[in-house]
Prior knowledge:
This protein has seven helices and nine strands, in the order ααβαβαββαββαβαββ. By secondary structure, it is an alpha/beta fold. α2 (15-31) runs parallel beside α3. It starts with a helix and ends with a strand.
Amino acid sequence: MGDLFRKAHRMISYPAAERNKTFILEVLLKYIQQDTSAKLLEIASGTGQHAAHFALNLPNVTIQPSEYDLELMESIRGYAQHVESGNLREPVRIDVEQGPWPIEKDFDYLLNVNMFHVTPYSSAAAFFKYGSQVLKNGALIFTYGPYANEGMLQPQSNINFDQGLRRQNSKWGVRDIKDLKEDASKHGVSLRHIYELPANNKCLVWQKG
Length: 209
């Protein structure tokens, strides 16, 4: 009983992740073929809630979670224990700005949820630089979070959110899709589609090559 308690105890749950995982999965299902095996790398997997949910619903996809925070890596392992399909790998430690990333270079998909606005912009730039290096040509990238577009940030709640982030850390803030497109293009990555999702967030679909 004590061992079971310890395994459950290290699983961290973020309400926002529980709310948005279904909406993000709906976008993934539009693009990920379910009749062939594939590999997906998630950068900044956080608690592991997303990785576990996607692994359960995409049994043909081997999902490689990654994190920098060691406490969160323990949470990812906790969620992985509930994925009986066995397609959720042991998390690896990756610092997004330190490249090349210590991971194999044959992924079909790359995913990031809610990192860009709570890290320096250099992390977003590094995501496209080093992320493109681990992807097959033609691979897809999915990024989720709040975004401005061509200098326009809406609605007011997102403006307030952005202001709060910048007060907390001057290097944080909601990123503009225009700036991300410019950095991504330096590494052969282009924006394919923008999905408007609940809670004033977006899922951006990018492609390498």
